[in-house]
Write a structure and sequence with these properties.
binds zinc ion; about 450 residues; Uridine Diphospho-n-acetylenolpyruvylglucosamine Reductase, domain 3; alpha+beta; binds (2R)-2-hydroxypentanedioic acid; 18 strands; single chain
Length: about 450
Amino acid sequence: MLDPAVLKELKRILGADGVSTTPEELVAYSYDATQREALPWAVARPQTVAQVSQVLAFANRERFPVVPRGAGTGMSGGSVPTQGGVVLSFERMNRILEIDEENMIAVAEPGVVTGDLQREVESRGLFYPPDPASHRFCTLGGNVAECAGGLRAVKYGVTKDYVLGLEVVLPTGEIITTGARTAKSVAGYDLTKLIVGSEGTLGVVTKIIVKLLPLPESVLTLSAFFRSVDDAARAASKVLASRIIPRALELIDQAALRAVENYLKEDLSQGAAAMLIVEVDGPAETTERESARVADILTKAGATRVQSADAGPEREQLWKARRSISPALYTIKPKKINEDIVVPRSRIADILREINDIAKHYDLLIVNFGHAGDGNIHTNIMLDDVDLPKAGEAVKKIFAAVLRLGGSITGEHGIGISKAPYLPMELSPDALSAMKRIKQALDPNNILNPGKIFLNAE
Ligand code: 2HG
Ligand code: ZN
């Protein structure tokens, strides 16, 4: 519970309008996209790094939890204040501070919405490739915390591949900068890479320097329909093996197709059992050549229909549908469990077959879609009750299959709270212990986002 003296000090640091404790606001900051919830004691909205530093130094002295939060679109419970404490929300630190066109970098505060940065740099002929499905809402700070991936990772990589440097407040209140504004820097340990993907447990990011690329000259998008998800998965692996790297290669199974078609009241697939969306980019002559080859590979691999999306509204509509799958599935089963397993790209069909067997064995509806180009599949177990014992068993079996195939239990959503029980399946006790020692060194009193990643911090 919030001690009145703590509240008074928070108001002194942040100003009265920088702290909320009304029940409505506490509820609004109690959950993320996993739909898990826990009420914070207060919500703090800093405007400066100095305020963040003072809040953390104070929390470290008084030993209360601080949970950093962007837009709450995370999918593993990373921003849910499971042990109460103060949610540190970055909605008032949402400025793009600089776009340096000559050096092709941008500097932004953590509360900037990813899509806003993308649009802003694109208007100057530049490109910020990381593209989480929630780009219209999610924030850069959250993307950095989780090392978000997204739709273009197959060609361009994920958030960590673009972050050159950070300003970070350590759990004990010190403000440090990591990395540099340059294309290269090997000065000391790579703390930037350590912080990116640390799920808000090692430091609070207050400024982000990202590298930008030239905006690709042209983009071509294809959709292909299949008689089975197995055909689609094998076709995806064939495209990848052809030495063409599309900028996106997404797979959608039948249940996901039906869900999004109902949600958008639109017939995308005319009853197909699976769909791939493939997008290539680059100079116009290259994209034309590559898309023709991709179309040929897809047809030979059994596509019943391959069509290209018109560059304007048709292409936008296609991506809108893809980005709407997750919300569409939530409308059917708000308590679904969603995983983001990743396997070597050549094993997509194998893992989908194993998941299908597991679904049958436990009599569960499991929906699959996602970033086939990365081998990263969003496996959604459609349930009314996440605590159903057979769901937990099915998840364990799926993870065991993923690891057997040489994969990882999470490609882009992070461990958070939802996957913490399963992390020891992937990491050795020594690897886990090394991670916990890093956490203890930086956060000796375990005040920053406690209870995340590890089931217990010792
Ligand atoms: C996506 O790619 C997101 O759409 C959400 O990562 C995935 O809801 C999901 O399982
Ligand atoms: Zn995704």
